[in-house]
């Protein structure tokens, strides 16, 4: 099957400081992303759009985390960009390979796999202080990864993250 795949490597993701789908959508020319609510939005490939108010029951873009489909009707899950090997964008109809939700394209987020060759660990922390207004709350984000080889053909890789987005609205009663 003829088609094109655009792959964004881990190095490119780190250089572009990609933390969510809105960030990496800017790196894929055929893809557009509209963020409706925190953590979810709509993905459009080549301008092909669907709408929840129409007769279309399925999404037009499939979203995969490794080999697992995470496509949901009405929204695209914004996968946290922690320990990601690459992102693959397949524009065009991909229904024969990725099902009926891939009529306009497919996004595959590929995570790093356990590595039996060496121990590795990584911690990434971001702090955003609210210097613009003392009333705003600070935001922070921390993620970590540890890869532990156990034998020549077995390794454990553990990944975790936590984040807090500071608000800017004070709800003062009375």
Can you describe what's shown?
The protein has 174 residues and is mainly beta. The protein is 9% helix and 43% strand. It has helices spanning 10-15, 21-25, 95-98, and strands spanning 6-9, 31-37, 40-45, 61-65, 68-69, 76-77, 84-91, 105-111, 120-128, 139-151, 154-164. The strands form 3 sheets. Strands 1-7-8-4-5 form a 5-stranded mixed sheet. It is flat, with a radius of gyration of 19 Å. The mean pLDDT is 80.
Secondary structure elements and pairings:
Blueprint: E1 6-9, H1 10-15, H2 21-25, E2 31-37, E3 40-45, E4 61-65, E5 68-69, E6 76-77, E7 84-91, H3 95-98, E8 105-111, E9 120-128, E10 139-151, E11 154-164
Parallel strand pairs: 4-8
Antiparallel strand pairs: 1-7, 2-3, 3-6, 4-5, 7-8, 9-10, 10-11
- Report how far apart the termini are: 65 Å
The biggest sheet amounts to: 5 strands, mixed
Shape descriptor reads: flat
The total count of strands amounts to 11
Order of helices and strands: EHHEEEEEEHEEEE
Sheet with most strands: strand arrangement: 1-7-8-4-5
Structural class: mainly beta
Rg computed from alpha carbons, rounded to a whole number of angstroms: 19 Å
**Nearest-integer average pLDDT:** 80
**What is the assembly state of the chains in this entry?**
single chain
The share of residues in extended strands comes to: 35-45%
Tally of contiguous helical segments: 3
* Low-pLDDT sequence parts: none
Range of helix content: under 10%
Question: Which labels suit this protein?
Answer:
single chain, 174 residues, mainly beta, five-stranded mixed β-sheet, three-stranded antiparallel β-sheet, 3 helices, flat
């Amino acid at each position: 099957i003829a088609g094109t795949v655009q792959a964004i490597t881990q190095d490119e993701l780190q250089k572009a400081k990609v933390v969510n789908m809105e960030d990496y959508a800017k790196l894929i020319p055929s893809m557009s992303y509209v963020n409706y609510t925190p953590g979810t939005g709509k993905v459009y490939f080549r301008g092909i759009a669907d709408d929840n108010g129409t007769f279309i029951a399925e999404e037009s873009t499939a979203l995969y985390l490794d080999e697992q489909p995470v496509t949901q009707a009405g929204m695209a899950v914004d996968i946290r960009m922690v320990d990601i090997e690459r992102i693959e964008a397949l524009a065009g109809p991909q229904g024969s390979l990725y099902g009926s939700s891939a009529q306009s394209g497919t996004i595959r987020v590929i995570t790093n796999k356990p590595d039996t060759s060496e121990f590795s660990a990584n911690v990434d922390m971001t702090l955003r202080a609210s210097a613009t207004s003392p009333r705003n709350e600070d935001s922070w984000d921390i993620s970590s990864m540890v890869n532990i080889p156990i034998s020549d053909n077995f390794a454990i890789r553990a990944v975790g993250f936590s984040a807090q987005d500071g608000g800017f609205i004070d709800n003062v009663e009375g």
